[in-house]
Amino acid sequence: MATFLLDRVQRVKIGNEYSHPGYPSGGVPQRTLSGPKCFHVYINDLRTTVPLYKYIDDGTLFEICDRNDVSVIQESVDIAAKWTEQNDMKINSEKSKEIIISFAQDGNFRSTIPNIKIDGRDIAQVCHAKPLGVTISQDLTWIKHVDNIVKKAGKRL
């Protein structure tokens, strides 16, 4: 296992050209059979501190909270960000999204919830998120997901 993780060489291929070799100091090799298992071992202790769903090399943090106490969400994000920093990883704030799922009758309450921040940057609040290819809507309907599938199928016809 050590030879799989240590002293790795990494190159980028564009067309038929390769970049100069790089030597990653941390993380887990991608696109390998053992990579996903190594990633789960690598981030296993994070699961004990924040509610997290993991798949391959992606993670989805979730919180169930009272709408009057949303600070717990930022606290969980801060814990995850600190953990990634301590483990030579980084959360990509550009790719991170926040979706607020609620059945509350007062639809305006979403605008009162402060944006989540990672490294001082606001995370975009979205109406739909697509973890693992399934479109989740903030109202938990399947309308957007089905629309996406129909559009995708239409392109293949």
Automatic annotation (TrEMBL):
<protein>
    <recommendedName>
        <fullName>Reverse transcriptase domain-containing protein</fullName>
    </recommendedName>
</protein>
